[in-house]
Specification:
The chain is an alpha+beta fold. The protein contains six helices and eight strands, in the order βββαβββαββαααα.
Length: 224
């Protein structure tokens, strides 16, 4: 299956401290279904099914990374399954063999670090123009990281630039987050998005063309 987006993307959820055991094992959800996130995206039930089958067939655990750093594996996941809520996982930290894993374990137990974040490629999706929501229907799961902060706080600029390169306009909330990460205040971000982007979106709806709108936004994003 060809990847729709060559950029590795991330989504984060939290876990409870009582799900971290003294032997370094832990449980949680790498993703939840039906939840509209700050990117205006929803992960559909079954989105991981094919990827999970391939991981199972490989016989190898899925890597557990530290903060999405491919150079810092700290453990793995030996049980991954979809249930009615989302992607349920059981993982382990190599806390007696890997120094960073021991640090992650201590931080997780004390609830200082409390996030799981999946790294994935989009294989199939569906865009709802009316609601401006992207439903992710098939994903290639690459890793699940232990993270401090939600991924959208770390990668909004790259995400918006990737949307523009793929020919998709960001939503107003996505563009506001993009501007805040670029250094604009909350007030200026809302003003710029509410006036500038709204005008471009209205222009697109009026003439039915997106190319000029995308060029203007892409030019602006590359200047930041």
């Amino acid at each position: 299956m060809k990847r729709k987006d060559a950029q590795l993307k991330y989504k984060q959820v939290g876990f409870k401290a009582d799900a971290v055991n003294d032997d370094g094992t832990f449980t949680g959800y790498g993703s939840v279904f039906g939840n509209v996130d700050s990117y205006r995206e929803i992960v559909a039930p079954g989105a991981f099914a094919e990827s999970l089958q391939l991981i199972k067939q490989s016989g190898d655990p899925l890597p557990a990374l530290w903060q999405h750093n491919s150079g810092e594996p700290i453990g793995g996941y030996d049980i991954l399954e979809e249930d009615s809520k989302g992607l349920k996982v059981s993982g382990f930290l190599l806390k007696d063999e890997v120094k960073r894993a021991a640090e992650a374990f201590a931080l997780m137990k004390r609830r200082i670090i409390k996030g799981l974040s999946i790294g994935y490629y989009v294989l199939e999706d569906s865009w709802n123009e009316k609601d401006r929501i992207l439903t992710l229907t098939k994903l290639e799961l690459r890793e699940i990281s232990i993270v401090t902060f939600p991924a959208n706080e770390l990668a909004q600029i790259d995400s918006v630039k990737s949307m523009l390169a793929a020919g998709r306009l960001p939503t107003l909330p996505e563009f506001e987050d993009f501007l805040r990460e670029a250094g604009f205040s909350n007030t200026y971000s809302k003003a710029i998005a509410g006036h500038g982007l709204r005008k471009l979106l209205d222009q697109r709806e009026a003439d039915g063309k997106s190319s000029d709108v995308l060029k203007q936004l892409e030019s602006f994003s590359l200047s930041l």
